[in-house]
Amino acid sequence: MTLLEIFPSLRAAMAPRLDPAVWPITTGHDDRGRIRVGGVALDDIADQYGTPTYVLDEDDVRHRCHAYRTAFPEAEIAYAAKALLIRAVADWVTREGLSLDVCSDGELAVALSAGVDPGRIILHGNAKPAAELRAAVSAGVGRIVVDSHTEIRLLSSLAQRRQKVLVRATPGIDIHGHSAVTTGIDDQKFGFPLTDGHLDAAVRLVLEQPNLELVGLHCHLGSQISDSSLFATAVERIVAQMGRIRREHGVILTHLNLGGGHAVPYLPGDPELDLTGLARVVDDALDDACARNRFPRPALTLEPGRAIVARAGVTLYRVLSIKTVRDGRTFVAVDGGMSDNPRVALYGARYDIAVANRHPTGAHTAMTVVGRHCEAGDVIARDVLLPTDLHPGDVLAVPCTGAYHHSLSSSYNAVGRPPVVAARDGRTRQLIRRETVADLMAREAGL
Ligand code: LLP
Fold it and tell me: Distance between alpha carbon 33 and the CA centroid of its chain, in Å?
């Protein structure tokens, strides 16, 4: 008999360390060495709801909201709903004092049905269809961030009362990140560059519309930014524009929206944007820029999405098969893949991974975890250390999958999208049910 069999509680003490930087805040192990989130063993969630399943730690989401409110007591924090929008999540974040940024009439409908005050909603998008603008105007959305001349004219014709708007500016700042999420440079589709009169033409057009009230400027530099000085540069450039707009148009803009893009770690050791540091840097930049331009300090809005929900999410998969090919690489195939996590294929994202249903005590070796879809690029985690005794039926957990996973999921290969299950205080609650084959068939018009 082994020591572990005599003292099962030793398993918890011996369980491999799960880095709190990438796992939800309530993560721990039970006395059988199984990983727990929200006081529930992930293995039990896999049994109850099937796999793959997205698990969400409600305490973690609330904790991140609280951290933002503490670091920025005077700023508005608008959660970027594109990261993950479910009615329950909209409810949690707004109860924690956040506003909401939406970017489609679908997101707007979910937010409104969760009871979010329309006055606290900001609508984004570089190409908003007329029906979307109409829905926003009739719901009484607080602010709309405009992004083209056509949109400015259309919105003005649809507005029933004076609609508050911000113009999206492109401050010419390169975050040197993935090109798909680099949005602060001139050569991409969002916003009006500060140069060559582009921003000024848009501002002028808004000011000509009697139904629109220009309240501020917005910019979003991109994703996974860990260097706060980039935000300071954005403040400097945007406040200078505000000073110029006052001089040239006699209008004082009162809102500065700096967008989101705050970096979170996906792997242990990855950089993270430090909120206290960001608060200090942005505050100093605002002081300097406002003094230099003799401009009254505008109200600040930040729009974090990923930093609110990424770390709350863990995706559960069941191992279906294990195969070692000629050059010695071992492929572990699981029952999900790029339909529930396209981020590896899209951005080359890297993930941590762990066995959730037991405490593996033996040797570990590098393996590549792949999905079930019909592409060689359908990879979940490349060259990760997993136990050599891994076998079909084991449950694998991938942390940091709360942002842009459910919202980016597809039904590729007619594989239904996973459910979203919240865990808190030892109980689970299904927020989104699994998409079934019957759901997919229901969209078919027939032969
Ligand atoms: N505000 C605006 C106007 C945005 O476009 C975005 C993200 C955010 C805020 C929030 O950014 P966050 O804090 O979440 O980084 N699918 C990609 C991310 C695309 C982000 C698009 N815009 C991914 O999975 O990494």
Answer: 30
What residues does 395 pair with on adjacent strands? Answer: 318
CATH topology of domain 59-307: TIM Barrel (3.20.20)
pTM of the model: 0.95
Q: HSE-up of 398 (CA within 13 Å, CB side)? A: 32
Using the mean position of ligand 1's atoms as its centre, give its distance from the Cα of residue 107 in Å: 14
Residues contacting residue 358 through CB under 8 Å, at least 6 positions apart? 32, 33, 34, 43, 394
For the Cβ of 387 lying below 6 angstroms from any atom of ligand 1, the answer is: no
Instruction: State whether the beta carbon of 341 lies less than 6 angstroms from ligand 1.
Output: no
Whose alpha carbon is nearest atom 19 of ligand 1? Answer: 181
CA of 260 to the centre of ligand 1 (A): 7
Measure 305 CA to ligand 1 centroid, in angstroms: 6
Tell me if 428 CB under 6 Å of ligand 1.
Answer: no
- Structure confidence at residue 10 as a pLDDT band (50, 70, 90): very low
**pLDDT tens digits, one per residue of 321-372:** 999 998 888 999 999 999 999 999 999 999 999 999 999 989 999 999 999 9
Q: Name the class of domain 3-57+311-442.
A: mainly beta
**Residues carrying an active site annotation:** 374
Question: Where do runs of H (alpha helix) occur along 293-426?
Answer: 306-309, 343-347
Q: Among 3-7, 68-72, 353-357, 418-422, where is mean pLDDT lowest?
A: 3-7
Domain ranges of the chain: 3-57+311-442, 59-307
**Is 168 close to ligand 1, i.e. is its CB under 6 Å away?**
no
